[in-house]
Design brief:
Oligomer: single chain
Radius of gyration: 26 Å
Number of helices: 20
Number of strands: 0
């Protein structure tokens, strides 16, 4: 143990990688150093562990998962952000391609919530990346209730964590509305990194998690994405928002083109709710002004004469 500590703290720190060679004693010694009072010692031990976890045969991963998982997770509560960030890197390397059991999943969730609540965007994105690559075990009612609680949290960062876990599970279980609301909160934040995370989530939903009940809610994203296109300072974010908006339009067109009556019903509801721009967006995707006019032709008193006059073909006096 003392020899390993000396190596870790010396300029020969990476020599510990060479002498390890599958030696579980070396791994165990490094794991013990994670509890050292000295921050530098913990950081160097984490760096060495991260290097050891590159071992392709999986022996080190198994040893760390068996003997060090709880020690690593405990470091997520460290006051030093460097320790938290490095721990997330090690956990990502440890858990990539590995499936953990439900007890470990709940332990990881409980330790991750305070990390999310810190509001450190860079650490938060690393946390989301860790859970994105995590292979989820079968979930019991207990785990689902825990994740559902995250999705209902007041803190936006915690809700995003819950959303990440719901998406991982492959089944939104009637929580699609909450997921889409969380994405909206991310996209309408003033933080460019959170906006990018929201775009990531929206693209994933479009690709893997769409359901019929989400279509009406999806219409509102057109305006949100247009606002990013027109208002974001980062040109890459503006370009990406434009691309995602195009994907949303394709999805809406594909769904509603064979469901014109349903589309007319949605447009009518949006107009009655005074959400005229959203109604216009959907109408223009599906068939332009003629679709709105066909709706008004069915109404005795009309819904919005001013807008109807705007959409009517111009007449020469």
């Amino acid at each position: 143990m003392d020899q390993i500590r000396e190596l870790v703290m010396s300029w020969r720190a990476m020599d510990v990688i060479d002498i390890a060679n599958g030696d579980e004693y070396v791994v165990t010694s490094l794991l013990r150093l994670l509890e050292d009072e000295d921050t530098t010692t913990r950081l160097r031990a984490l760096t060495a562990l991260g290097e050891l976890l590159k071992d392709p045969d999986g022996k080190t991963k198994s040893a760390v998962l068996r003997n060090g998982f709880n020690r690593l997770v405990a470091l997520l509560g460290d006051k030093d952000s460097r320790i938290v960030s490095r721990t997330l890197e090690v956990l990502l390397r440890l858990l990539d391609g590995m499936q953990i059991d439900e007890i470990k999943l709940l332990t990881l969730i409980d330790a991750s919530v305070p990390v999310a609540e810190r509001g450190d965007t860079f650490i938060y994105l690393s946390l989301l990346d860790l859970f994105r690559k995590l292979q989820m075990p079968p979930l019991s009612w207990r785990s689902r209730a825990r994740i559902d609680g995250l999705l209902n949290a007041d803190n936006m960062y915690v809700r995003g964590l819950g959303m990440r876990l719901f998406l991982n599970s492959g089944n939104l279980d009637g929580r699609s509305e909450a997921v889409l609301e969380c994405i909206t909160d991310l996209l309408t934040s003033n933080n460019v990194l959170l906006i990018e995370a929201g775009l990531d989530f929206l693209e994933e939903v479009l690709a893997f998690h769409l359901s019929a009940d989400m279509m009406r809610r999806l219409v509102s994203f057109l305006n949100v994405l247009k606002n990013i296109e027109n208002g974001a300072e980062n040109i890459l974010i503006r370009s990406r928002a434009s691309n995602v908006r195009t994907e949303v339009e394709k999805v809406l067109f594909s769904y509603y083109r064979s469901r014109k009556e349903e589309a007319l019903g949605v447009i009518k509801e949006l107009l009655l709710e005074k959400r005229v721009e959203e109604a216009l967006n959907l109408a223009l995707i599906l068939g332009g002004a003629s679709l709105l006019l066909s709706l008004w032709a069915r109404e005795d008193d009309g819904l919005d004469p001013t807008l109807m006059e705007l959409l009517m073909p111009s007449r020469t006096p």
